Amino acid sequence: MGRVSDRRWRPGETVVERFHRPDGSIGQVHPLRVLEDDGRVLRAWLPAGTPIIGSRLADGRLMRDAPLEERFRIPRVAVPDSWHGASTLRRIPEDEWSSVWWFFDLEGRFKNWYVNLEIPLGRTAGAVDRIDGVLDVVVERDGSWRWDDEDEAEAAIEVGRLTLEQFDRLRAEGERIGALAERGTYPFDGTDTDFRPDEGWPAPELPAELSPRSGEGSAPARR
């Protein structure tokens, strides 16, 4: 059995997923509605339209608008934003270098899986903490899969955003995930692809000290 945390959350509670940067600062913050938590694996829901803390480059540009060679060289700043375009169910294990996100369109139909490769940092009061690994894996409904953001991962290594050792561990995790997808085993066996959120639960909210009251952006989520 993997690492089990003493911190556990009850179904219906809100917990935030915080993406730390290597220098210890916090980048994006996503509020999640807890579905299930046993201290090792958290399953939670982030519906489209939920306010989040996003990030932009310090000069005001979105990361995707900057040339690749600049994306990890210019400081980033936190900005009010919203999660948009799709809702996600997330499986976040304490002892794995990835979390699996089920993507659902705005009508609630399952689209595909997105596997965010991450460095786990454990839990704090009200938060699960990770470092985004830049490199990701996309798994389609038929079990086929591909790497995502390989070019960004290489750029991140060049400037020290990721070490080679971390990258090797993240890539090995991606290969492990890909093998599960090819075999059609959990979590890529159809489990939760028919998920519907409890209609009685409101959307998760950011903690009051982080909750934006104006100026919500619409940038795609990146850490």
UniProtKB/TrEMBL annotation:
Source organism superkingdom: Bacteria
Keywords: Hydrolase
Species name: Amycolatopsis tolypomycina
Limits of the DUF402 domain: 60-185
This protein's name: DUF402 domain-containing protein
GO MF, one example: hydrolase activity
Annotated region (Disordered), positions in chain: 181-223
Gene3D superfamilies attached to this UniProt entry: FomD-like (2.40.380.10)
